[in-house]
Specification:
277 residues, alpha+beta, 2 domains, ten-stranded mixed beta sheet, two-stranded antiparallel sheet, 12 strands, 22% helix, 23S rRNA pseudouridine(1911/1915/1917) synthase activity, PsdUridine_synth_RluA-like_CS, 23S rRNA pseudouridine1911/1915/1917 synthase, RNA binding
Length: 277
């Protein structure tokens, strides 16, 4: 398997399974989009002989495809229902780490900790953003703490009062902190070849045994080292280079030259998409 088609099982009993999901892997199957964590877990259970029609993975929450980290699956349909019905009561802590670019203007830096309480809207391609004018929105609340602030990037720890799609990415980008590697929100750095968002901690009360459980998988150590060093002359991300025509030895592509395919649209940021509507 490729790296993004592997999962690490952190815990498994007859009711639940907790895994470490790599970046680039869907949480659950989506037509025509390749492997998923749920599908790979099902394959593992089949190989171990623990899979049956009544004992198989069921989704109880999701991580974005590009987000890595700790996530949980139910292993029976009744466990899924119980977990989803009591999710906010049973989960006591859910923490993320994010590596974000700093705003150019230091006066716009966020405080060391606080709350982003801005509603989110979604464009035609289901990409979330904080709107600048009145439109249909959903509530979204993100708590943030600065772990380390460097010359060019900041490492944040975040927790969510609401679990909306793209919430952390949209909230931080709206404050001038796009996540490194996030082309949808106009990031200018991509030193790790991935979106720098990681679900680090999941703490909950087991839905059947009432045991307090905590699972923690640290984000890549390279993120902190990168913040400490600073990146004052970052290499231009591939998507920015392509948008400007790229190096002379590469084929240039102008958006106005042809009708966009669904794949092209998926790789454009929401501002570009809005300009074409």
């Amino acid at each position: 398997m490729k790296n993004h088609e592997k999962i690490d099982i952190l815990f498994e009993d007859e009711y639940i399974c907790v895994i470490n999901k790599p970046t680039g892997l869907l949480s659950v199957p989506s037509q025509g989009k390749g492997k998923s964590a749920l599908g790979i877990l099902e394959e593992i259970m089949r190989k171990k002989g623990t899979y049956s029609p009544k004992r198989k993975p069921f989704a109880v929450h999701r991580l974005d495809r590009e987000t890595s980290g700790v996530m949980m699956f139910a292993l029976t349909e009744s466990a899924q229902k119980k977990i989803m019905d009591s999710w906010h009561q049973m989960v006591s802590e859910r923490l993320y780490r994010a590596l974000a670019e700093n705003p150019r203007n230091p006066h716009k830096f966020l405080p060391l900790s606080g709350l982003i309480d801005d509603n989110l809207a979604f464009n035609a391609y289901n990409v979330g953003y904080v709107p600048k004018k009145e439109t249909k929105t959903v509530p979204a609340r993100t708590h943030f703490t600065t772990i380390l602030r460097g010359k060019s990037h900041t490492l944040f720890e975040l927790s969510l009062d609401t679990g909306k799609k793209n919430q952390i990415r949209a909230h931080l980008a709206s404050k001038g902190y796009p996540l490194a590697g996030d082309k949808n929100y106009r990031a200018k750095t991509d030193n790790f070849g991935r979106l720098c968002l990681h679900a680090r901690t999941l703490e909950f009360t087991h839905p059947f045994t009432n045991q307090k459980m905590r699972f923690e998988v640290p984000e890549p150590a390279e993120w902190k080292a990168y913040v400490e060093k600073g990146d004052l002359h970052p290499a231009e991300p591939s998507w920015n280079s392509a948008r400007r025509g790229g190096p002379k030895n590469q084929k240039s592509f102008t958006l106005g030259q042809k009708r966009l395919s669904a794949k092209d649209k998926a790789h454009m940021n929401f501002i570009e998409l809005g300009k074409r509507r």
